[in-house]
Write a structure and sequence with these properties.
mainly alpha; MetI-like fold; 2 domains; two-stranded antiparallel ribbon; 24 helices; 2 strands; globular
Length: 581
């Protein structure tokens, strides 16, 4: 009799178990498809366009003509050489500065180490186009303030020229050095100092121990940072367009932009050059992955250790001055020149006489200039939307990749990480091409939605970094207990995972929002009249020579972003403490 009751009860009990499971599978499957769509479609579309002669015309057909024209042009090889020198030069300078500064910050007793962290964080907030404009104010051979100072002191000497390949490398390197610093700080902090101590105890000099042990163990991080900086550099739009083009120095980005701005646009030529960039970036990723494979660089074991700071002795103050000096050059000077220029009716070098001309007219004009007001509204809409969507997507993807036991789930993790290895300019081109040719029921070109799609695609790897770190700390037993209590998966995710992940959620939202707010490499190809964002407005103002207006807008942008970072950090700390309690 009891067996019959169990048999009768089973059909009615099954729906209560299957319905939540089905809903979970549908949701997770949908998110997986969205991530795959965002990551693969732009790249596939760009490759498709490169293999089409007469792309976007009625006579379009399969052909290798675009590659024949590209590789058959002698100027392409000069373009390739410029791009490699520019990218590798920036990577070398940024990695050297970033890893040196990070070593002083994490492993020595140098004073003023707080300035090292500020040097790493503040440039991440400053949009690249503002950093470029600021350094043109400082190093331009005609209006550069530093050249004006050297001319006054040394009698006509104006030694610096931003409009050169070394000038491009210098400006871009200062902006991406924080990326290398953050990766270096993580690597140095994870190293067991007993290895260096053992080398010194065996008779090795501290310098030799640093060269053989510290730098040897940091080699994967050095190559990974160099690769990331290299990809960011060859994909960056600001320095090549604002500095390189006026100097007649063309790299991949400026060439692609020129082809798309031509009349008629050379879509196939732009796509073929973009494919070359993709191949170079992909080769770098494969090399970095092969270098870091295996355990020969592993130093973190089950044995606890505490990092020991190296006593620099009498050299500690010199190290402290180096930290402060880099802060002044990389952070203080660009911000100071932006503020100074924003308070003058027209650009002029600092002087006592110029103080009499101080005015807030530029700040008032920001709100009265139609393009700026419209661009600010569009930037807020697109950055907040992209931050929210990216955070939601990456939270679910992190759950799937870390908490599920689905076969082949590594592929979803790979797809979520793919955009970091694909230059954002290529993502912008691929998205542009796809929404120009795809037979979709909704026309997205020229809308803010297209910008949001681009920003979400670029922001997914950044969101995954925070979500994975938070998700991996949550024990599976919490979900098991909720399921045993009858809670659905959606209720479990909402009531358990979301509160515990809140610090990671806020960090991911803030980071992806800032990435979207400052992005220009993809936005320059995705916007149209009426959908301009702040980075595009700044580029337009620079093209029209409205330098004080740029400085005022940039100062407001940096101030707003710093306030947002502070608010979210404090809010995240409080919520995290509340969740822990």
């Amino acid at each position: 009799m009891s067996v019959e009751r169990v048999a009768r009860a089973r059909p009615s009990a099954l729906p209560r178990v299957v319905r939540p499971l089905d809903g979970k599978i549908v949701l997770l499957g949908t998110v997986a498809v969205i991530v795959a769509y965002l990551a693969l479609v732009p790249v596939a579309t760009m490759i498709f366009a490169s293999l089409q002669a007469g792309f976007l015309t009625n006579e379009a057909h399969w052909s290798l003509d675009n590659y024949v024209r590209t590789f058959g042009n002698a100027s392409f090889y000069r373009l390739l050489l410029n791009s490699l020198i520019y990218g590798l030069g920036v990577a070398l300078v940024a990695v050297t500065l970033g890893f040196s500064l990070a070593f002083l910050y994490t492993r020595t007793n140098a004073p003023f180490r707080t300035f090292g962290m500020l040097t790493a964080l503040i440039p991440l907030i400053i949009p690249g186009i503002l950093n470029t404009v600021a350094w043109l104010f400082l190093l331009s051979p005609r209006i550069g303030i530093i050249n004006a100072v050297t001319q006054a002191v040394f009698g006509g000497l104006r030694p610096f020229n931003a409009y050169s390949l070394p000038g491009m490398i210098f400006i871009q390197a200062l902006h991406v050095t924080p990326t290398a610093f953050i990766m270096a700080a993580a690597a140095y902090t994870a190293m067991d100092p007993s290895l260096e101590e053992a080398a010194v105890a065996s008779g090795c000099t501290p310098l030799a121990a640093f060269r053989r042990i510290t730098l040897g163990l940091a080699r994967p991080a050095i190559f990974a940072a160099g690769l990331l900086v290299f990809i960011q550099t060859i994909a960056g739009f600001e320095v090549p367009q604002l500095v390189g083009v006026p100097a007649g120095i063309y790299v991949f980005v400026s060439e692609i932009y020129a082809k798309l701005q031509a009349f008629p646009p050379d879509y196939g030529g732009a796509a073929s050059v973009g494919f070359v960039v993709l191949v170079i970036a992909g080769a770098g990723v494969m090399f970095s992955h092969r270098l870091s494979r295996g355990g020969r660089y592993a130093t973190v074991t089950g044995k606890a250790f505490r990092a020991r700071r190296l006593d620099l002795g009498r050299w500690r103050w010199l190290a402290g001055l180096a930290i402060v000096g880099f802060f002044v050059v990389a952070v203080a000077l660009p911000l100071a020149i932006l503020i100074w220029s924003s308070l003058l009716p027209s650009y002029e070098a600092p002087s006592l006489a110029a103080l009499r001309h101080f005015t807030l007219t530029n700040y008032e004009g920001v709100w009265n200039y139609p393009l700026i007001k419209h661009a600010l509204i569009n930037s807020v809409i697109t950055s907040v939307s992209a931050g929210a969507l990216t955070t939601a997507l990456t939270a679910i993807v992190a759950y799937v990749t870390l908490k599920s036991r689905i076969r082949g789930i590594w592929l979803l993790d790979l797809l979520a990480s793919l955009p970091i290895a694909v230059p954002s300019i290529l993502m912008g081109i691929g998205i542009l091409f796809w929404y120009l040719v795809a037979p979709l029921p909704i026309h997205l070109y020229g809308t803010l939605a297209l910008l949001v799609i681009g920003f979400v695609t670029i922001g997914i790897p950044y969101g995954m970094r925070y979500m994975n770190a938070g998700m991996i700390q949550i024990k599976d037993e919490l979900e098991e207990a909720a399921t045993a209590s009858g809670a659905s998966w959606l209720a479990t995710f909402r009531r358990i995972y979301v509160p515990l992940l809140m610090p990671s959620i806020l960090a991911a939202f803030l980071t992806t929002m800032i990435v979207a707010f400052r992005e220009i490499s993809a936005a320059i190809f995705l916007y149209s009249q009426g959908s301009e964002v702040v980075s595009i407005a700044i580029f337009d103002l620079w093209s029209n020579g409205q330098y004080p207006a740029i400085a005022a807008l940039g100062t407001i942008m940096v101030g707003v972003l710093i306030v947002l970072v502070t608010i979210v950090q404090r809010l995240g700390g409080r919520i995290g403490l509340a969740a822990a309690e």
